[in-house]
Amino acid sequence: AMVLSDGIEERMDAGQFQAALAPKARGTEVLGELLRGERLDFLLHLSSVQSFTGAAGQANYAAASTAQDAYARRLAGRGTYPVKVVNWGYWGDVGRVASEPYRQAATARGFVPISTADGMEAVERVLACEERQVVAGAAGPGGVGVLGRLAAARAPAGAGGSVGPRGGYGPHAV
Q: What is the average pLDDT across 40-60?
């Protein structure tokens, strides 16, 4: 679920904050409850890189994406089926933000739009890898810098550039 209700956090009322938070956070929770006891091959949550990078005016959406990621960790703890999370970068061809204003904002922050073909290839790679949570996106020098600082901040001591333990949660690049 995705609802964008952009605005400066200090100026948001509770309704505007909840407009973005509730569908993603509560929707993920309800899905988990509906699937309890099911025998699935896997469950793939489609989240956002906003969980890690944030964007001006999108604190409510970043909170919603972070809540989705956390609930996916909880579901994975049940151990009944593999749970994976993709924290997507900016999709340029399809979806709610496939518009020129969002393209300009993403490009200004150093991110390159993901094509539909590249996105589908990323899904295949995510499902085939051991990581439980990955960031999938394309970035120019500015965006790579943001993700590089993120990786360095979350990497365990002595990880040699790794973003986290194999098979663990945390932003792994695909």
A: 82
Q: pLDDT confidence of 144, banded at 50, 70, 90?
A: low
Distance, CA of 152 to chain centre: 18
In our burial notation (b when 16+ CB lie closer than 10 A, e otherwise), range 114-148 reads: beeebbeebbeebeeeebbbbbbbbbeeebeebbe
Q: Quickly list DSSP for 49-67.
A: GGGTS--TT-HHHHHHHHH
Q: What is the pTM of this model?
A: 0.73
Q: How far apart are CA 113 and CA 94, in angstroms?
A: 10
Q: What is the pLDDT of residues 109-143, one digit of tens each?
A: 777 888 889 999 999 999 999 999 998 877 776 66
* Beta-bridge mates of residue 133: 85
Coil, strand or helix: which one is 90? coil
Distance from the first to the final alpha carbon of the chain = 23
Residue 34 CB neighbours (<10 A): 9
DSSP string, 11-44: G--HHHHHHHHHHHHHHHHHHHHHHTT---S-EE
